[in-house]
Amino acid sequence: MSLLWKEIRDSPMLWLLLAVPVVFVAASVAPEAHTVLFILSVLAVIPLAGLLSHATESVAAKTGDAAGGLLNATLGNLTELVIALTALRAGQYTLVKSSVAGAIVTNTLFMLGASFLLGGLKHHTQEFNRANARLQAGLLFLATVGLLVPSAVASRDSGSATDVLHKLSLGLAILLIVGYALGLLFTLKTHREFFASAEHAETEESPWPLGLALSTLAGVTILVALVSEVFVESVQQAAEVFGMTPAFVGFIVVALVGGAAEMASAFSGARKNRLDLSVGIALGSASQIALFVAPVLVVLSYVIGPTPMDLQFPPGVVVMVFLATMTAMFVTNSGRSAWIVGILVLMVYMIFAMTLYVLPDRGHEADPERVGARLGSVPW
Amino acid sequence: MSLLWKEIRDSPMLWLLLAVPVVFVAASVAPEAHTVLFILSVLAVIPLAGLLSHATESVAAKTGDAAGGLLNATLGNLTELVIALTALRAGQYTLVKSSVAGAIVTNTLFMLGASFLLGGLKHHTQEFNRANARLQAGLLFLATVGLLVPSAVASRDSGSATDVLHKLSLGLAILLIVGYALGLLFTLKTHREFFASAEHAETEESPWPLGLALSTLAGVTILVALVSEVFVESVQQAAEVFGMTPAFVGFIVVALVGGAAEMASAFSGARKNRLDLSVGIALGSASQIALFVAPVLVVLSYVIGPTPMDLQFPPGVVVMVFLATMTAMFVTNSGRSAWIVGILVLMVYMIFAMTLYVLPDRGHEADPERVGARLGSVPW
Amino acid sequence: MSLLWKEIRDSPMLWLLLAVPVVFVAASVAPEAHTVLFILSVLAVIPLAGLLSHATESVAAKTGDAAGGLLNATLGNLTELVIALTALRAGQYTLVKSSVAGAIVTNTLFMLGASFLLGGLKHHTQEFNRANARLQAGLLFLATVGLLVPSAVASRDSGSATDVLHKLSLGLAILLIVGYALGLLFTLKTHREFFASAEHAETEESPWPLGLALSTLAGVTILVALVSEVFVESVQQAAEVFGMTPAFVGFIVVALVGGAAEMASAFSGARKNRLDLSVGIALGSASQIALFVAPVLVVLSYVIGPTPMDLQFPPGVVVMVFLATMTAMFVTNSGRSAWIVGILVLMVYMIFAMTLYVLPDRGHEADPERVGARLGSVPW
Predict the structure, then answer these.
(1) Distance between CA atoms of B260 and A7, rounded to whole angstroms?
(2) A37, B300, C62, C124: which one has the fewest Cβ atoms less than 10 Å from its Cβ?
(3) How far is residue A136's CA from residue C115's CA, in Å, rounded to a whole number?
(4) Comparing A54-63, B100-109, B196-205, C158-167, which segment has the lowest mean pLDDT?
């Protein structure tokens, strides 16, 4: 317990933990104060994500290389998964999908770009392990193809098409999960020597004892789930107050909040000229969400959602995910970086953010007729 | 003749030649047994494709380097060409187009991916000649642009647009054939030293005497044409029986059947750690179909088809060809491979196959109104 | 003055300067002779562009490295900017946009491809500086994303959407200009050592004295503006006479005319085996138009245009710009070239040119209903 307390004292971000009890009190006292609840829940998720990430790493460090790597890779985006599951149970599929797509794009562009920029401002040029970057970019590309194709075939006749789309989405989800598992097999087992540097660095901070780590993992996951509930309930009204579209909230705000802890590690790695670590976290996290979190959500939607969720995204979102993947493929190709590369990647992200911010609320769930009209305009 | 017989005895695949007489007997006895005829004709095409391929290589080996290379490159996809010509004469343009697009995608993804996987399962990492891979990928990209643009400009007003599309398709076809010819000039003449390893390996099996090779070439081509006729007539009804869409049959089944012989060589090359050979066959074959077979079919449609054929493909097909080309560009970029690369490429193929299998029958020719509706939904 | 005269005598292209007075006389004598005026104005712009380019380089050479590079980079596409401004003031936004997109595509494909081809016909293989090529391709990619996204979100409901589109276009324009400025900072200041070879070569011809250079710059800019006015007024009727669509004229003809001077330098560099120079001019010019000229036009449209101009391009144009950027990324990736690479790039350009030539006149401004119908068919 004193170790957990030391952790909290050392890391200023963890003072935000104070927001956790406040959000629960506020939610029961003033359930209609959506804007306040939204802000509080965002503030509360950030430190919880940090604790979750550290606890996962600690468990991974204890359980040895292969199992640890597996655990780390599987629970690395637990925050995003829990938030998405909460939205899934509430049937808010637009929020689920935009937060999944947003997490992919934010990790690929914002986390990677800011790492390049922060590292580049300190070091003239930086080198990183191409093998890992290329593999992660390749897996990301595979997932993008999986997202792109069902969206491309979605047809106008909504009758039988929905059924077809659900069957296809389930099949693709299983395929992507298999791909993810094989990717882990490759990096953790058969060809681990290519990924040495990235792996080593991840357990850099002193790990917690196993008991503390496991109980933190369990406890914090529950807290994240509870806070997520407040977040999901308040997000739509709060977004309207701030003049943000739901798409912007899911795509940008949720993604930045959910990835805060990983970003801290990626940025600190870049400053220390360990760009391998940063690239590994950014692209690894993006490909994990695309190949594991998103498919798992599709499969779980059959169990816990009101109706099955498909993998169809609005065309604009597909274009963004595709362009983000292309950007990652392009900039990691040379294995070298300087600050301008970071600017370039960040600007692609800013173009997306700007577009989503300005966009009228396509896909607003409260207005099914508009959604219908939008689906009708899907171009294939 | 005894050489031909030895060939047949040594290669178990050639026992399938027994299906050739059977298919002709069956076609005249029971012309309505579409499912049986379909299966028999598929079985019969596979060994014929193998013989055709060996005969072409034997003639090429006799006629010396430049002419031989030219011959090999031109007749390498003779099976696909003959099947497509048969479908063209029957006016089944959807089948023609989907078999062309399918052959490109299947060679680029299935043949390449399975080579990487089979090679990678035996060898930890493999290297291959990047120069050839890059050139073939570049030619493939050129052809993809040629396919993409007319499909992108196809407009809603069907009146004058059809005319424009035909003019454009013919022009592009000629352009692509010129590009193909210049590509041969480059690899066989001006810069042949860059492609040494790939070329050398192609004439690995002991060549036949010229007379046998030439008569086999002639005789087998005729047999393929006759079997193709049975195949084209039976494919639609058989597909319905198996619950497959015509798109799936053209795209996947025909492509796998037509490419069986080349696949055998590519896979055996990969197992022998001669990945140059595999990559050369897979991408070379894909770019040949895209730059030579498809344009030749457009030109010939003016001579033998009921109406001219254009180069417009449904948007979903264009997306698949484009993504297949991008995949090839990406994975051949490093000149190195391991088993996960094969998995990645194969999974992209499986996503396409799954989508086409599940898809309702867009582009079904028996239903012109639906086709009209589809064309109306072309997005540009 | 005698230096200017020497320049004119030495360079046969400059004899075309005789067309300048002729065009003004013709415009006042026969303002209805659109075809003649069109041809004369094209002929007159070519040598003026050459003088402008030489004058800019001379000023740049005098003012020292950083300031000179900045000046060179900013005024390098002055001809294109002046022509576009004239069309902007006349409210001919389709011409403005297609000339901007055409300049990007023409520089990326025609100038780069012809340089590779001309160099490759003389030298077996050529090498060039990948760092610069990759940076320029990256900047071009950034701009393409900026063009692609607003076109992707353009929605059917034209009411509020126009407003949104204008806000978005203005925001993106400012973002791209900032990106351009940072790119200059990188190449001219913080990482100039990577771009040494390309920069050095640009001031190869003997520079003029500063006074002559400055007055030429001022005088010729005015002449270009005056000639552009004749050009813009005559282009539509002349295009109809020649059977060319306005899209073809803006995309191909204007782009070739405006870039004539730079092409001369790029081609001569390629023949001298200084491919760094050619690639730098071609991609540098393309990225300058995309990141600087186009955004500046958007901003200026608020000041001098009849209505604000947005960054929305027809989908076909977006596809072409995107494919041109992909081509540049692909072919510059290896840092090596041979003649077939030039052929490949040129053929992509020819596919575009052929398509635009054959295309019915989408986007014809004289027919607003058709434009409306087209916008309605924007696919997102």
Answers:
(1) 62
(2) C124
(3) 35
(4) B196-205
pLDDT range class, residue A372, cuts 50, 70, 90: very low
Q: Which two tokens stand for residue C287?
A: 């990225």
Question: For chain C, which chains pass the contact test of at least 3 CB pairs under 8 Å?
Answer: A, B
Task: Please indicate whether, in this complex, the C-beta atoms of A190 and B334 are within 8 angstroms of each other.
Answer: no
Q: Which residue has the higher pLDDT, A346 or C1?
A: A346
pLDDT per residue over A163-200, tens digit each? Answer: 778 888 899 999 999 999 999 899 888 887 777 654 44
Q: How far apart are CA B308 and CA A133, in angstroms?
A: 47
For the ranges A144-153, A209-218, B235-244, C325-334, the one whose mean pLDDT is highest: C325-334
> Does A148 sit within 8 Å of B315, measured CB to CB?
no
- HEC per residue, chain B: CHHHHHHHHHCHHHHHHHHHHHHHHHHHHCCCCHHHHHHHHHHHHHHHHHHHHHHHHHHHHHCCHHHHHHHHHHHCCHHHHHHHHHHHHCCCHHHHHHHHHHHHHHHHHHHHHHHHHHHHHHCCCEECCHHHHHHHHHHHHHHHHHHHHHHHHCCCCHHHHHHHHHHHHHHHHHHHHHHHHHHHHHHHHHCHHHHHHHHHHHCCCCCCCHHHHHHHHHHHHHHHHHHHHHHHHHHHHHHHHCCCCHHHHHHHHHHHHHCHHHHHHHHHHHHCCCHHHHHHHHHHHHHHHHHHHHHHHHHHHHHHCCCCCCCCCCHHHHHHHHHHHHHHHHHCCCCEECHHHHHHHHHHHHHHHHHHHHCCCCCCCCCHHHHHHHHHCCCC
How far is it, in rounded angstroms, from Cα A210 to Cα A228? 26
Q: Do B175 and C319 touch (CB under 8 A)?
A: no
pLDDT, averaged across chain A: 81
- In this complex, the residue of A339, A350, A359 whose CB is nearest that of residue C175 is A350
Q: What residues in chain C have their Cβ under 8 A from chain B's Cβ atoms?
A: 124-125, 315-316, 319-320, 323, 326-327, 330-331, 333-334, 338-341, 343-344, 347-348, 350-352, 354-355, 358-360, 362, 373, 377, 379
pLDDT tens for each residue of B174-191 = 999 999 999 989 988 888
Of residues C378 and B143, the one with the higher pLDDT is: B143
Of A320, A334, A354, the CB nearest to C168: A354
The label of the residue with tokens 């380089």 reads C57
C376: closest chain A residue by CA: A377
- Mark out chain B residues that contact chain A at CB-CB < 8 A: 124-125, 315-316, 319-320, 323, 326-327, 330-331, 333-334, 338-341, 343-344, 347-348, 350-352, 354-355, 358-360, 362, 377, 379
Q: Is the pLDDT of residue C263 over 70?
A: yes
**Are residues B340 and A161, on separate chains, in Cβ contact within 8 Å?**
no
**What ipTM did this prediction achieve?**
0.85
**Can you give the pTM of this predicted structure?**
0.87
Which of B135, B148, B149 to probe the C interface (max C CBs under 10 A)? B149
The candidate with the shortest Cα–Cα distance to A347, out of B122, B162, C139, is C139
CB contact (8 A) between residue A149 and residue B379: no
Cα-atom radius of gyration of chain C, to the nearest Å?
20
What are B33-80's pLDDT values in tens digits? 888 998 898 888 888 888 887 887 787 777 665 666 667 667 778 888
Of B323, B355, B360, the CB nearest to A150: B355
Q: Does C333 sit within 8 Å of A360, measured CB to CB?
A: no
**Nearest chain B residue to C355, by CA:** B168
Q: H or E element: which one contains A336?
A: strand A336-337
Q: What is the pLDDT of residue A371?
A: 33
Phi, psi for residue A104 in degrees, rounded to 5: -60, -50
